[in-house]
């Protein structure tokens, strides 16, 4: 036990995570291989510790892992995490990070951080409707906690937390440039540089991505149903999804002693909206977004005797913009228009829209945050962490133009009295949402108590006060038992909450969904039992068992006597399951990894399967150095058992087996590296679920994923 303590202490004292070999015994060297730099994690408690000992169910994915698997986007990486399935939204094919059966279309129940700073948007509570993916060249490591995290991170750390840590100077070997070409007219390029300037460590990264996107065919859509009803032929189905986009990502890090500064830009342009914002194909629309971030961090582990002090100041600016008209229903659509100028009943008449049913909503947000924390180790066997912070977010501009609804100048229904030209409804009585802000003050306290030789108890709670919905307190308790030198057992309880989005609270003038300013946050209580077993220094096994209770779920409930639905806290979902994972260094040139996850989630109000999330997931990967500097990585995932929600009478979503392969040649002519990847090797017809409507699913045959595709890349280091 003393050896383990010494190893952890040495890891924390050395920034690189390395220790001079001569200072260690043979046993300590073996333990260092187990608890090495790649398996240190900080998001479980806010302090670094070996992932196997952390009071959470966590995974760490390094840049080396990402390169080995041939991933080009964040979502391909996250799909390898046990119990996490990346489903697909109709809107832009945005990712739905489905953890342990917690599924919703906008997916605000998972908190995503970049360098510890939230990138959640106020409008929908997601990462931005114009997400457009995230490339991986700038990523040093990804830390994922499955389960509650609100006691540490507050709102939206609900089903899980994903922290993306970008590369610093130490992660970049001088300068690297690279490029990739592949299927769907995809072109990528990047440049990375790590060095020193004026006494600062510097890391600078630029990434470019341009693609026409896969062209999976939608056989029928929402307009197809209107065509059948009103005798028109406006639907563009069968037709391809609209997934083209151009991305520019740039990141800068400056660090010196206890200070670290990050700046970033995620520019998205010419972005298609997938299967259509109204689940009707729309090849016309192009979205755009600029997401700017800066943060300044102070971290001094020796601030004073027994004191480690940290502080962070950050700013985040994000937008959802329309470059070309958002056509909810295509040109020639004939639709029933009610007195409010929108689709509804009772209709004043059927109206044919020669340019389509067009609405262009845009939102712009700013977020400013400050937090500070201190760790005090002056008490025997205790490490006490406390902190306070303040977050301010504002949806400071919302604008729209549309050819439906009420003309704010005349008060008449636009489709019934106009020539279908667009009417600007910004800052008028016909606006779809008003500007609004949210203030959040929080304080937290956490104690890690080593009360016996092989036992530790982590307890903590966080208090949050919100300007728009009140207070919430979220506790956590974790008991960690080092059962044997090679086995750790954890028993954990945590509470979490998800803040209502501004769309759920404040949306107005919408024919389908209306906001409710009286909403309360969603809540979740989770119990977990976890085992981390390392019988040999080259073999790790993990087993996790969980049970959760999700309450006050925010859903849009149909209004009596009206075609609209209003957001309400209603319904309870429960879930349980298990996750098993294994990692084996079978030989010096062969590493095998895999995991299996099972979950069963129930909508208690309807006594029915919660729907859409896979009941079983299996993932396998082999990393094989076939010959010196030749690396071959096959991987496969099985997605099994996705049911439907109550009232969705379609057959279950089809299972699929997805196989990828990557072959990489390193140190080619010393400075060069090349790789070739195949995605969906066997060209399976894989689909993600489309959502059910009131009467039938707008897209009955679900959302097609990409067929077989190929990518080749080259890197040059100097």
UniProtKB/TrEMBL annotation:
Keywords: Cell outer membrane, Membrane, Receptor, Signal, TonB box, Transmembrane, Transmembrane beta strand, Transport. Residues 53-161 form the TonB-dependent receptor plug domain. GO terms for cellular component: cell outer membrane. Residues 263-681 form the TonB-dependent receptor-like beta-barrel domain. GO terms for biological process: siderophore transmembrane transport. It comes from the Bacteria. It is a multi-pass membrane protein. SUPFAM superfamilies: Porins (SSF56935). Pfam families: Plug, TonB_dep_Rec_b-barrel. GO terms for molecular function: siderophore uptake transmembrane transporter activity. It is found in: Cell outer membrane. InterPro entries: Beta-barrel_TonB (IPR000531), Beta-barrel_TonB_sf (IPR036942), Plug_dom (IPR012910), Plug_dom_sf (IPR037066), TonB-dep_rcpt-like (IPR039426). Belongs to the TonB-dependent receptor family. Hemoglobin/haptoglobin binding protein subfamily. PANTHER family: HEMOGLOBIN AND HEMOGLOBIN-HAPTOGLOBIN-BINDING PROTEIN 1-RELATED, TONB-DEPENDENT OUTER MEMBRANE RECEPTOR. This is TonB-dependent receptor.
